[in-house]
Amino acid sequence: MYLRMVEATVKIDGEVLLGSVYSEKILSSLEKIPGCIFAGLLHSHDHSKKYISLTLWKSQKDAEAYEQSGAYQKNLESVKDYLEKGSEWKIHLSEDNTVEYSPVPVEPDIKMYPVSGNEAHLPDEVPANSNYLRILSLKINKGYKDEFTHIYNSEILPELKKIEGCRYAFLLDNSDHDSEMISLSIWDDADAVERYEKEGAYKGFLKKIEHTLGGLYQWKMALENRSRTKSAITSQDIGVSKFTLITGRKFN
Fold it and tell me: What distance in Å separates the CA atoms of residue 148 and residue 37, rounded to the nearest whole number?
């Protein structure tokens, strides 16, 4: 499978309408696109105006064909009035030689990742019963990618899927960018995620793979283990992002 995320900043007065347009127009459009397995609109918990359109594809070829066909641009046009314009302005002359100013459009940020492992089936209940996504960003030490991937797929992933409230989970390979691997999990609600993070399972999973994480992260952990009053922020810290699923649909 292949995952594609389109991130954009939405106007305050466009948030409600965006969900309706996405549900009525974009989901209907994507349902007809070959290779699209799932599509959903996500709202960030940390940034109130940040939204992501997440799509799952059977292959990278399918995702790229969608973008090159013009269908993506057409879908973008249907929501562009709800997106924030840029802070940069373009100066140009009108036909009567009057100076005019217009904002430079901000193109949404597009990210694409291959799914690591053999995950090929999205459970039918995911769109209906799930409304929360958790994205974990991990920076892997040089030479440890294969070991990390093996531990995650063989030891962590099967146990994660057994945790109450977790509907689905998989690993994304972004190792070409700063040695990053991404764990994405889909949950019933925020309470299920909070229980998972507080009851020890999450820390137990980290213990299994901490030796494969970046050197700066390991230095930070060693520092904090030596002194409870000392801490540090590094470029290899684990990043956690959480999103509410506004609307979504699985396609056959």
Answer: 27
DSSP 191-208: HHHHHHHHSSHHHHHHHH
Mention every residue, 6+ apart, whose C-beta is less than 8 A from residue 68.
Answer: none
| β-bridge partners, 97 | none
Integer Cα distance of 10 and 12 in angstroms: 6
Residues contacting 14, CB < 8 A, separation 6+? 81, 82, 83
Asked if the model's pLDDT at residue 56 lies above 80, the reply is yes
Q: How many CB atoms lie within 10 A of CB 49?
A: 15
d(CA 227, CA 225): 6
Within 10 angstroms of residue 140's Cβ, the number of other Cβ atoms is 22
- Measured over the CA atoms of residue 144, residue 146, residue 149 and residue 153, the dihedral's sign is negative
Domain limits for position 110:
2-90+97-250
Residues 6+ apart with CB under 8 A from 110: 4, 5, 6, 7, 67
Percent of the chain clearing pLDDT 70 (strictly above): 77
Pairing of strands 99-103, 239-250: unpaired
Name the domain count of the chain.
1
Q: Give the pLDDT of residue 101.
A: 61
The set of residues, in sequence order, having a beta carbon less than 8 Å from that of 201 and lying 6+ positions away, is 159, 160, 163
In this prediction, residue 89 has a pLDDT band, given cuts at 50, 70 and 90, of: low
What's the CATH code of the domain at 59? 3.30.70.100
